[in-house]
Design goal:
The chain is mainly β. The chain has a single domain, classed as Structural Genomics Hypothetical 15.5 Kd Protein In mrcA-pckA Intergenic Region, Chain A, CATH 3.10.290.70. The chain is about 5% helix and about 40% strand. It has 2 helices and 11 strands. The strands form 4 sheets. A 5-stranded mixed barrel has the order 6-7-9-10-11. The longest helix is centred in the C-terminal third of the chain and has 5 residues. It is elongated. The termini are far apart. It comes from Methanobrevibacter ruminantium (strain ATCC 35063 / DSM 1093 / JCM 13430 / OCM 146 / M1).
Length: about 120
């Protein structure tokens, strides 16, 4: 079944909205990337205009920046907290805003791995 990101068939009050046209290809969506822990694996997706988007399927490295502004690449051990979905913690799925345990300490993910193709974050203490 296709994922449609068009207008809802219901109004905010719950009444049925009558569509004045059908679905458009530009309103199609895709399933989320759900980046997991593991050896690096990128998937290339063709987007509108022939551009390419790198979807990160798996990775175990994160680029972290500390309070002084120094950046380093460290290994991820696991997902501690994820406000997007509590079940993502059990499945070790990394999204923006997730808190992960790294070799340098706890880090909050600031990038969107499914959109950017890389995991960036800031150290939190």
């Amino acid at each position: 079944m296709a994922i449609c990101q068009g207008k809802s068939t219901r109004t905010p009050s719950g009444a049925r909205r009558v569509a004045n046209r059908g679905k458009r290809k530009s309103e199609l969506g895709r399933e989320s990337a759900e980046t997991k822990l593991g050896d690096k694996n990128l998937r290339k997706i063709r987007t509108r205009g022939g551009n390419v988007k790198n979807r990160l399927a798996r990775d175990n490295k994160i680029n972290v920046v500390d309070a002084e502004g120094k950046a380093q690449t460290v290994e991820i051990f696991g997902v501690i907290e994820n406000t997007a979905n509590p079940n993502y913690v059990r499945r070790n799925i990394i999204t923006k805003g997730a808190i992960v345990e790294t070799a340098a300490g706890k880090a909050k993910v600031t990038s969107r791995p499914g959109q950017d193709g890389v995991i960036n974050g800031v150290l939190i203490e």
